[in-house]
Amino acid sequence: MPTTLINIFTTAPENLDRLAALLREGTEAWISKVPGFISSTLHIARDNRRVVIYGQWRSADDIAAMRRHPEMPAYFERVQALAQMDAITCDAASTVTA
């Protein structure tokens, strides 16, 4: 079963577009190419203050490897300049579909 990584970014409304663009850029350029990456969905909250990334990874070890990737320090510094972040690693407990 995949491991889910949920990142919640809180930012000022004037930084929202730059933050979303940076997160898309990082995901497309290198995060999606890290072994174990399955998918990522970026959500923008209607309050224009939060961005949520719901990512699926093969395992928690793959998430840890992504965090050690050589691109991460510079990327994370750019993200931190725009937002505060909270990360949650989860295992699915239940899925309901229509």
Structure description:
There is one protein chain. By secondary structure, the chain is an alpha+beta fold. Helix content is 32%, strand content 35%. It has 3 helices and 4 strands; from the N terminus they run E-H-E-E-H-H-E. The protein has helices at 16-29, 60-67, 72-80; strands at residues 3-11, 37-44, 50-57, 83-91. A 4-stranded antiparallel beta sheet has the order 2-3-1-4. The longest helix is centred in the first third of the chain and has 14 residues, at 16-29.
Q: What's this model, at a glance?
A:
The protein is α+β, with helices and mostly antiparallel strands. The chain has helices spanning 16-29, 60-67, 72-80; strands spanning 3-11, 37-44, 50-57, 83-91.
List the helices and strands and how they pair.
Blueprint: E1 3-11, H1 16-29, E2 37-44, E3 50-57, H2 60-67, H3 72-80, E4 83-91
Antiparallel strand pairs: 1-3, 1-4, 2-3
Order of helices and strands: EHEEHHE
Q: What's the rounded overall pLDDT mean?
A: 96
What is the distance, rounded to the nearest whole angstrom, between the alpha carbons of the first and last residues? Answer: 20 Å
Unreliable stretches: none
Taking Cα atoms only, what radius of gyration do you get, to the nearest Å? Answer: 14 Å
Strand portion: 25-35%
Tell me the helix content: 25-40%
Protein structure class? alpha+beta
